[in-house]
C-alpha cells in the first residue's frame, strides 16, 4: 500500500508524537503506512503525490486569521507551502483530510471566511450530520449525532458556495465539509480520545484556550465524553483511499 502523508505543524515533540500515534491507531495504519513531515521544523521538501494514498493535515497552534504582521516567519512560511501544495491537491481532487488547522488551510485556500466568530471552548460538543453528511462515505457508520472534542480560536464563518456542509453543531455551524469528491475538513478532532485531549489541555494550558486554573476540571469533564464514534472518520478515510 502507498503510505498516507501527515503534514504536522505542532512544535512540541510530545503533542506531535501523540498526534502521529493517534492517527496510526485510529487510521489502523502501521508506521510505514503514515509518513510524517513536521513542517514547523523545516521547509516542505519536493513531493510527488503519486507516491501517496492521501494527505492529512493535523492540528496546529497557529491561528491563520490573525493579521499577517502578527505571524511569525515560520507561520508565514508554513502557510505559503501548504497553500502551494493545496494548489495541486485541489486541482487533482487528491484525497485530503484536514483536522483543525487543516480546515483553516483548505477553506482559506478556497475563499472561505475564517475568523473568531465561532471559536469554541475546549470540551466535547454534539456534532449533527446534515442530509449530505448522512450519505457521505467518510461518515459511514456514524450516528446522526455524536460527541467530539473541540477547542479552537477560529472557525469558518462563511462556507464557499462550492463546498458541501456535512456536519454542524450548536457552537459552530461548519463542523465538517467536503469540496469536490475527495477533499475533507473537520473542525472537530476525529483523532482525539480522552487521554489525548487531557495531554493537550496540560500542554496548552497557558496558550489562551482557557484559564490555566481550569485545566484540572476540563480534564475531569472531558474524561467522561463518549467520543468513540468520531474515530471512524479517520478509519473511513484511510480505508476508502488506500491504494496499492
From TrEMBL:
SUPFAM superfamilies given in the database record: Class I glutamine amidotransferase-like
PROSITE patterns with a match to the protein in the record: GATASE_TYPE_1
Keyword Transferase: yes
Keyword vocabulary terms for this entry: Glutamine amidotransferase, Transferase
A single cellular component GO annotation: cytosol
All copies of domain Glutamine amidotransferase, residue ranges: 49-192
CDD domains: GATase1_1 (cd01741)
GO molecular function, one term: transferase activity
PANTHER family in the cross-refs: GLUTAMINE AMIDOTRANSFERASE YLR126C-RELATED
UniProt protein name: Glutamine amidotransferase
Amino acid at each position: 500500500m502507498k503510505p498516507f502523508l501527515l503534514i504536522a505543524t505542532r512544535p512540541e515533540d510530545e503533542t506531535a508524537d501523540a498526534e502521529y500515534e493517534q492517527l496510526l491507531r485510529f487510521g489502523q495504519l502501521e508506521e510505514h503506512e503514515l509518513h510524517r513531515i513536521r513542517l514547523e521544523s523545516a521547509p516542505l521538501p519536493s513531493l510527488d503525490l503519486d507516491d501517496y494514498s492521501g494527505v492529512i493535515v493535523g492540528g496546529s497552534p497557529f491561528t491563520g486569521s490573525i493579521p499577517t504582521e502578527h505571524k511569525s516567519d515560520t507561520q508565514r512560511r508554513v502557510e505559503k507551502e501548504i497553500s502551494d501544495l493545496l494548489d495541486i491537491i485541489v486541482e487533482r481532487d487528491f484525497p485530503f483530510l484536514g483536522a483543525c488547522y487543516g480546515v483553516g488551510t483548505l477553506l482559506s485556500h478556497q475563499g472561505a471566511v475564517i475568523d473568531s466568530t465561532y471559536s469554541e471552548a475546549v470540551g466535547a460538543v454534539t456534532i449533527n450530520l446534515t442530509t449530505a453528511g448522512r450519505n457521505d462515505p467518510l461518515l459511514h457508520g456514524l450516528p446522526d449525532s455524536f460527541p467530539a472534542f473541540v477547542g479552537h480560536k477560529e472557525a469558518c464563518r462563511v462556507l464557499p458556495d462550492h463546498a458541501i456542509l456535512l456536519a454542524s453543531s450548536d457552537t459552530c455551524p461548519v463542523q465538517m465539509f467536503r469540496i469536490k469528491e475527495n477533499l475533507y475538513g473537520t473542525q472537530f478532532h476525529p483523532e482525539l480520545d480522552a487521554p489525548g485531549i487531557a495531554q493537550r489541555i496540560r500542554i496548552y494550558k497557558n496558550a489562551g484556550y482557557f484559564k490555566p486554573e481550569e485545566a484540572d476540571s476540563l480534564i475531569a469533564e472531558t474524561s467522561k465524553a463518549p467520543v468513540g464514534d468520531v474515530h471512524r472518520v479517520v478509519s473511513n478515510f484511510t480505508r476508502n483511499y488506500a491504494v496499492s
